[in-house]
Give the backbone structure.
Amino acid sequence: MKWTANEIALIGTATTVVVAILSALIAYMVAKRERRRTLYSEAIQAIVAWKEMLYRVRRRSGNQVYDLVAAFHDLQDKLSYYEAWIGSESKYMSRSYKRLVKAVKSKTDFLIRDAWKESIRDPAEYSLPSDDHPDLAPNVEAFLNDVRSHLSPYFWRRIALAYRNREVK
């Protein structure tokens, strides 16, 4: 079978179009994954900052009270923002992030309240031996495991994510 010049040109054009479509699709998927990675890293940064507020309250100076209260408000706004944004990405990731936020707040709530009641410390003073330090590593690691599953190209990782974060009644 002999190919005509038109058929060869058509095959070349079709190949070029297919390669262009595949390249655009791959570029879209890479950009989407990178955008999600940025979202999750910023969301983690916001909730870890909540734990840091415990140390800021412990080391506050007398004139920082209103600044610290404003910082708590700003941080709560960020947490709400990330909960909503993650919720628009995935209901399973939303449940995972809400669980992380709840865990961090529950582990720091009484410590922060107690820190407000303590006398003001020198800002350069390190932690006291009697200070409690909440361990958030298991909670953060659980969320990061969900992030890795959500960003994974393997469908079984996303199925496991959905199973771990299913709605339990």
Notes: The chain has a mean pLDDT of 90. The chain has one domain: 35-164.
